[in-house]
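Open question from group meeting: does this chain pack into something compact, or does most of it stay loose? Before anyone orders reagents, we agreed to write out a predicted structure and look at it together. Recording both the input and the output here so the notebook holds the full record.
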Amino acid sequence: MSGPVIDLGELRHGPDPDPIRLPRPPLARQRPLRCALVLLLVLAGLAGSGPFNRREVLTLPAELGAEALVTDDLFVLVEPLGGTGQRRLTATRLPDGEPAWQVPLPTEGRYWGVAQQGETLLVTGHEVGPDNQGTLTIALDRRTGTYRWQQPGNAAALPDGNLLMWSTAGDEQGDTLRGVDLCCGTVRWQLPISPGGMFVLRDGEHGVDRLLVVRLRGSTEVRDPTTGAVLARADLDAGGGASGVSVQLADDLLLTIGGATATTTAYGLGDLRQRWRVPAGEALYASDCGVVICVQTRSGGLRALDAATGRDLWASDRWGWVWPYAGRLVATTVSSAGPGAEEIVVLDPPTGRVLAELGRWELARFARGGPLIGVRRHPDGGLLVAELDVTGGQARTLDVLRDATGDCQALTGRLLCRRRDNAYGLWRLPR
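Structure tokens returned:
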């Protein structure tokens, strides 16, 4: 595999999306003289400003089908190694692009996820072979790639820097939850979930901060995922997802939808006491939308409920995906789904009023609290890149990446995208 290449190219912008056509000004006398003066001023400014701005692009070679992740100072690539199914992990230092290390992954499988937790890289995939055991997570030293440990199942970060892991042994045996030390994979606590039961996680600012365990028969528990301790317990008849009951967490509420009573019921997550109950209607599932609760209906519509009372605030059948961002709601239109781009709008959470229309974009993947970057095909090739300013209600054009094709990840001040040659390019975005 060839090494990274730093490409310096001119910073050029294509035409702005949806340009506004202004009325043509009337022709005035002595216009040539004024144009000549303006031209002289422009030339003088260019002469004093030095060389043109240039965009720095770090080219990171990769094979088609490789999975990539950018951490604080590493570009990590999971790519095939021969045709046996075994894969290798390659790390490149940023921002200079120097090779850091390369190691084979110890187990054959299809790997799709890489995450960083402290000084550890966690690689998650699915084992292949006659003794297939399902999902597997492998821990490596971030600085050297040295193998540390592996555990069956998926992993999520905990506020204390360790991990919550879960694995499934099949419908007849249920799931197993485990608190695991990041350093060495030691199991701190574990909890089996009987068949038919379920668990729900709540993500906080620094990792999973609440764990809800719902059993098919018996009590519902709220647990501290760091220690496994029970914080609240009650018989809610949630049914463990059986009998058409859907169970979700939204901020400080536990919500059950459907069941024999065909209602949406909210319980306080701290004590599991009922807060309110309303008819479910066509409600399918609920999600946390900041100051409101978003409820998706079976017909594809959206309802917004007051989190304090369950009262209907507004409803619409125009919106598909909706999520909270910067104190507002970002939504995609149901009918706009196209090849890689959707119409994106900004909504006022309490009223559902459209505050801004940002245009048709494909969103780059972003971490929680990260920048909202949209890309779309440019008529002359490459990708048009814009920062979607939710607070200001506008899409601000940043650049045209001539060699980019898609599969983009947004980072602070940088954008990682696939190139035409299947390599990745890491662009520093103008601000």
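Observations to bring back to the group:
The two ends are 33 Å apart (CA to CA).
Residues 339 and 412 are 26 Å apart (CA to CA).
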